[in-house]
Amino acid sequence: MNKPSPNIMGSRPQIKQLDDAAANRIAAGEVVERPSSAVKELVENALDADAKRVDVAYADGGKTLIRVVDDGLGIAHDQLQLALSRHATSKIDGSDLLNIHTFGFRGEALPSLGAVGRLTITSRIEGADSAAEISVNGGQVLPVKPAARGVGTTVELNDLFHATPARLKFLRTDRAESQAITDVVKRLAMSEPYVGFTLRDISGGGQGRVTFRADAQSGDLFDAVLGRLRSILASEFAENSVRLDFEREGLSLHGYASLPTYSRGAAIGQYLFVNGRPVKDRLLLGAVRGAYFDFLSRDRHPVVALFIECDPTLVDVNVHPAKAEVRFRDPAAARTLIVSGLRHALTGAGHRASTTVADATLGAFRPETPVYQMDQQSRPAAFTPVQSGFAEVQTDYSGRVEEAPVEVDAPLGAARAQVHENYIIAQTKDGMVIVDQHAAHERLVYEKLKAQMAVNGVASQALLLPEVVELSENERLALIEALPTLTKFGLVIEEFGGNAVCVRETPAILGEVNAINLVRDICDELSDQDNTQTVQDQIEAILSRVACHGSIRSGRRMQAEEMNALLRKMEATPHSGQCNHGRPTYVELKLADIERLFGRT
Ligand code: ADP
Ligand code: MG
User: Of the residues 303, 329, 348, which one is the last residue of a structural domain?
Assistant: First the structure.
């Protein structure tokens, strides 16, 4: 350990009062970790001052320059100096730290920034003859002098960390720092949709390049938030998300969440706000994961913008210097709010799959050159299999189509054919639907298992000949521990000596099933589970594995009645637009899209 000895050179160490500059530099270490944290503090100050417009400019990833211009209330001349002193704030009087309605309240940002960079504040309030300016350089405050600008405030921060070169070394590339600045501005822009924002990279000098712009929104809050999300997230997000408007135990949740079929490879599209404050809170992010657990494989992540509102006294925002984390008085209630709110909204979405699925499908179909110009050799690869595929179309009821009950009015239409013994082609009122029968059936079995579980456990059926499965010791131990739960899933398993187990009963809904594979799969699931998952999540993960085994295999022929029954069940079953791994169970092509494919429109 490199700890300094309390007794250096044999003499007792002296306790000394640090001067303001040192105290501010230490505070800055917590508040200002990197350029984006400075941007966050300055933009939050502008928003706290009721700005309607906030313009942010930066150079070299924010390392050499950050400038935030607002049209807010401004700071009076005689208060400028105070604004730069530590623990000086206009936002609270200190009597009630739990009743906070502003972004800032600690009075630390400006003195901290002044301690680690060259800071200039120019500000003018309504009714003042002119603006005034104050500068601070490495903690040295210069006298206030007159300046020119309209009502509002400009804060310019040059050469961040020049006074603390050690910190400079920890900064990442300009690109990475710019990325972090953009992320901070976008998050704040989401929380304040009625405020207009611009972000400019002026590294090259001059006006620079606008890297982000969000015009002030109007209308009711939902419209305003959605409008703002459109300018921040990919434009398809709006069509591929469900709206949340949920309340529980005094907490409310609103916002938008993506359909499971619209997911990302990393948790980068997750925006959470508590009483308007952007947070990156582990508890809340974990709850989002839990809510989608059922619909997405582990490596996929939903895109969400969730706004939690509650009485400010129910949440402590003063647990993190940069206020990125919060502490709820009742963390379980916050988790339940998110999980139930999201599930409720996703259930409402029924069998809806995302439009990006159809778009991607069309993209794959669409020949790159017009069809009529192509000869056999120049056909794009994607086109060829489609052609040969249709040559092998198998219908199980040729000659009866005319007689089949017409169900084209139903959302998933009437089954017309089965191709490659795995895809159902159905005709809808204004298009066609292609269903992956295996994926769809897996989802139906899963939802049914869950419903049975919720009532009185899954019905089981005895195997004529019990199956013996040889396991590793760890697998056996994990399985034995889970036996009471597995029995509720309709799986009756006994120890068989050594590391072998014997399967006596399997879930009836699965029909004839390969019990050995089923048990091995459950062992895999048990070994994958980590103890941070809730019991509910663990149960659902196992059910999802079980469901996989009872699903109609790809490669099974289906009769028309059976196919139509599947379509009707999908319509009636929640979440049937995606399989348990978040892949779509069907794609829909509108007639208009098909006509476009053939160049008819
Ligand atoms: P805090 O935001 O926690 O109060 P700061 O150090 O960030 O602490 O700011 C100190 C004070 O300076 C604020 O309380 C506010 O009165 C004033 N201030 C800072 N920035 C602005 C701004 N852009 N417009 C108006 N007033 C501001
Ligand atoms: Mg502040």
Answer: 348
Quote the tokens at residue 104.
């800032």
pTM: 0.68
Whichever domain contains 448, its CATH number is 3.30.1370.100
> What are the Cα distances from residue 239, in Å, to 228, 299, 356, 403?
14, 23, 9, 37
**Backbone dihedral region for residue 497 (phi beyond 0: left; psi -120 to 50: alpha; all else: beta):** left
Please provide residue 70's backbone torsions phi and psi, each rounded to the nearest 5 degrees.
-130, 165
- Give yes or no for residue 367 having a pLDDT over 60: no
Q: What is the pLDDT of residues 446-499, one digit of tens each?
A: 888 888 888 878 888 898 888 999 888 888 888 998 898 888 888 999 999 888
pLDDT, residue 216, reads 96
Residue 557 corresponds to which tokens in the numbers above?
């022929």
* Residue of 30, 32, 48, 123 best suited for mutating to test ligand 1, as the one with most atoms within 8 Å of CB: 48
Expressed in angstroms and rounded, the spacing between residue 33 Cα and the centre of ligand 2 is: 15
Same domain, 98 and 185: yes
Ligand 1: which of 32, 41, 45 to mutate, most ligand atoms within 8 Å of CB? Answer: 45
Closest ligand 1 atom, residue 74 Cα:
25
How does strand 492-495 pair with strand 431-436?
Answer: unpaired
266 band by pLDDT with thresholds 50, 70 and 90: confident
| Distance, CA of 257 to CA of 244 (rounded, Å) | 7
Are residues 262 and 304 part of one domain? yes
The tokens describing 595, both together, are 């006509």
Q: Which atom of ligand 1 is nearest to the CA of 105?
A: 3
- The rounded distance, in Å, linking the Cα atoms of 315 and 335 is 13
CATH code of the domain covering residue 250:
3.30.230.10
Indicate the average pLDDT of the chain: 83
Residue-wise over 13-36: b if at least 16 C-beta within 10 A, else e? eeeeeeeeeebbbebbbebbbbbb
Here the tokens at position 574 are 């929640």
Closest protein CA for atom 21 of ligand 1? 45
Half-sphere exposure of 341 (CA within 13 A, CB side): 29
The average pLDDT across 27-50 equals: 91
Residues 71/285, Cβ–Cβ less than 8 Å: no
Range list of H helices, 32-140:
35-48, 80-83, 109-116
Task: Evaluate whether 30 touches 125 at the Cβ level (below 8 Å).
Answer: no
d(CA 185, CA 175): 15
CB 260, CB 585: distance < 8 Å: no
Contact 384, 406 (CB under 8 A): no
Q: Which residues surround ligand 2, an ion (CB under 5 A)?
A: 45, 104, 109
Cα torsion angle, 41, 131, 81, 162, sign? positive
Tokens of 116: 């680690």
Helices (H), 196-298: 221-232, 282-292
CB 487 within 8 A of CB 522: no
pLDDT band at 402 (very low <50, low <70, confident <90, very high): very low
The ligand minimizing its distance to the Cα of 109 is 1
- Are residues 263 and 185 located together in one domain of the fold? no
Which DSSP category does 60 fall into? Answer: G
Cα gap 444→559, rounded to integer Å: 18
Ligand closest in space to the Cα of 43:
1
